């Protein structure tokens, strides 16, 4: 038996074991239990040949240039993706898929530090790493870039397929540019946090559109924001256009990006990749998903301060399912915050979003910063009807997906999209490295050299977030913390004594964005306001993120005592006084 035939037997056996459990989103033509173990065929492209299961679809992109590179059904795609495709807007989930394309300036932009290179004379790289359940190998002797998507259940199958690869007589070498020459190694980055502060229309599509399509839509469409699936083990479409160069070009042209991660789904669904019903495990899974999303965002040049939205599709809620979802989102949020990102949550308004709203004030869960809700009522606004109280996530923290799965054409480029309406702001993520540190106290008493405890740790985190390094936040007020305090005080025109007293607390606690706040406002900025008023007034102001009557009175008292106009509204003058430590 030849080595290739032996591989076919081994891989065919793996196919039976793995595809049997792919789940609800597998293609209709999955392998049957009685499939023969040699159920393989050899596919050759550009001097690269690989054995794939016979029930995988093989798509020649030269013959079908508009084909959608779908990952929700097993397939291998050969060639260069075209500038237009026929992808549905809503493709959720994946099984396994491989894209083999020539190494060109365009495809080289997809390569990252995780891209493996096959050795000279080889078409395989057995130690290739998987990132966001994607393995990428540059087979330079054949001049191709191979991108293989999988799930945890299908990774072994995909690796078996990749291990079967060989070079053919027609192979011609094309080298992938060195990391110092590749476009993704250049100082490319989005033009600020994404989506940033924006009010208006946007759209999301299964795959990031080509540069030509984005240029055409920029000129003639009503949209200025675009949702992009940057990460996650359950993304349904390949992303051949999504590179750091693409991100830089779009944001420099004025587009706002909505970064989306598609990971584990609710346990009360039939999806093949689900979060655990155990809340502690689900929270850990959320942390893992967020770490992958942060890595992907960083590689694409999407900076801290951006919001990343976890896509959890509609589900029929139960008590245990709701607890799993909110625990997952708690881990997701805390891990994003630890890296300086805002957390977002996409779901159906009638399931995930309603569940999150029902526990909005439950401190057992860490609340997401933004909601992105599917309610296809055709209204381009951020009204949430009866699903979410109007005072929740009301401080520029909403995206409404108001129409789904429509095809629109501008400048000769057609895309199947979901229509979105955004009212978003940048917000202020919690300080990096301070996840789980309590910043809410009934009184902010003076701390100084020799002090210890939670108040010291809170001061250290706030100093760190302001750019003044006190060392690792450990709750011990030592020399580094004193130095950081003096430097912060000097920057605010305060007496640089190294002691965190009422004025320094007030300046530290109020630092961040300065939106106009008044009765009815909610969110992170209100929480910062309430903390700083507690410090400035020397009395307890309830810290709940809701601007109610108690906060209104505290604002009026502060304004009166500082010689400001007394109107109970926190505008530039009031924020300015707080942030200068008055």
UniProtKB/TrEMBL annotation:
Composition bias, Low complexity: 109-125
Superkingdom, taxonomy of origin: Bacteria
InterPro entries (alphabetical): GH, Peptidoglycan-bd-like, PGBD-like_sf, PGBDSf, Rv2525c-like_Glyco_Hydro-like, TAT_signal
Stretch forming the signal peptide: 1-33
PROSITE patterns tied to this protein: TAT
Entry keywords, A to Z: Signal
Region (Disordered): 109-131, 170-191
Coiled-coil regions listed: none
Claim: Transmembrane is one of the keywords in the record: no
Domain Rv2525c-like glycoside hydrolase-like as annotated: residue spans: 215-421
Peptidoglycan binding-like domain sequence ranges: 452-508, 522-578
Name the UniProt record assigns to this protein: DUF1906 domain-containing protein
Gene source species: Streptomyces chromofuscus
């Amino acid at each position: 038996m030849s080595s290739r035939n032996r591989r076919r037997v081994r891989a065919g056996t793996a196919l039976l074991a793995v595809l049997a459990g792919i789940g609800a989103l597998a293609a209709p033509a999955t392998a049957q239990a009685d499939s023969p173990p040699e159920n393989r065929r050899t596919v050759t492209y550009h001097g690269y040949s690989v054995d794939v299961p016979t029930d995988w679809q093989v798509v020649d992109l030269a013959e079908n240039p508009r084909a959608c590179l779908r990952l929700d059904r097993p397939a291998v795609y050969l060639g260069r993706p075209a500038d237009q495709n026929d992808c549905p807007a809503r493709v959720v989930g994946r099984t396994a898929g491989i894209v083999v394309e020539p190494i060109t300036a365009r495809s080289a932009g997809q390569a990252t530090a995780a891209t493996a290179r096959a050795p000279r004379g080889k078409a395989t790289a057995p130690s290739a790493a998987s990132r966001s359940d994607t393995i990428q190998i540059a087979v330079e002797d054949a001049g191709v870039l191979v991108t293989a998507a999988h799930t945890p259940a299908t990774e072994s199958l995909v690796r078996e397929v990749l291990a079967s690869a060989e070079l053919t007589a027609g192979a011609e070498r094309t080298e992938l540019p060195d990391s110092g020459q590749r476009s993704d190694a250049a100082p490319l980055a989005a033009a600020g946090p994404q989506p940033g502060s924006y009010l208006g229309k946007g759209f999301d599509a299964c795959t990031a559109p080509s540069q030509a399509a984005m240029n055409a839509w920029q000129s003639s469409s009503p949209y200025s924001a675009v949702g992009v699936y940057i990460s996650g083990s359950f993304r349904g479409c390949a992303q051949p256009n999504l590179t750091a160069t693409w991100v830089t070009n779009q944001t420099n042209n004025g587009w706002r990006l909505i970064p989306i991660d598609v990971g584990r789904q609710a346990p009360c669904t039939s999806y093949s990749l689900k979060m655990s019903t155990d809340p502690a495990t689900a929270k850990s899974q959320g942390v893992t998903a967020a770490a992958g999303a942060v890595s992907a965002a960083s590689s694409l040049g999407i900076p801290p301060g951006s919001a990343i939205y976890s896509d959890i599709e509609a589900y029929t809620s139960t008590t245990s399912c709701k607890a799993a979802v909110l625990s997952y989102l708690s881990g997701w949020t805390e891990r994003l915050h630890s890296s300086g990102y805002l957390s977002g949550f996409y779901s159906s308004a009638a399931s995930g979003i309603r569940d999150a709203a029902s526990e909005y004030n439950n401190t057992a869960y860490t609340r997401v910063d933004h909601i992105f809700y599917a309610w296809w009522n055709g209204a381009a606004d951020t009204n949430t009807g009866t699903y979410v109280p109007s005072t929740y996530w009301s401080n520029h923290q909403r995206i409404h997906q108001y129409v789904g799965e429509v095809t629109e054409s501008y400048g000769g480029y057609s895309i199947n999209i979901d229509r979105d309406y955004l009212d978003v702001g940048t917000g202020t993520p919690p300080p990096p490295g301070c996840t789980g540190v309590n910043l809410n106290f009934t009184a902010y008493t003076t701390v100084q050299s020799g002090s210890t405890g939670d108040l010291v740790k809170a001061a250290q985190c706030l100093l760190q977030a302001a750019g003044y390094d006190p060392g690792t936040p450990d709750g011990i007020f030592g020399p580094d913390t004193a130095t950081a305090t003096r430097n912060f005080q000097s920057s605010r025109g305060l007496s640089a004594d190294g002691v965190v007293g009422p004025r320094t607390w007030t300046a530290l606690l109020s630092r961040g964005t300065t939106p106009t706040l008044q009765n009815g406002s909610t969110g992170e900025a209100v929480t910062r306001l309430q903390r700083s008023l507690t410090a400035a007034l020397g009395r307890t102001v309830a810290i709940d993120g809701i601007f109610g009557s108690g906060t209104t009175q505290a604002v009026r008292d502060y304004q009166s005592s500082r010689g400001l106009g007394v109107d109970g509204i926190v505008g530039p003058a009031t924020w300015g006084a707080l942030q200068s430590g008055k």
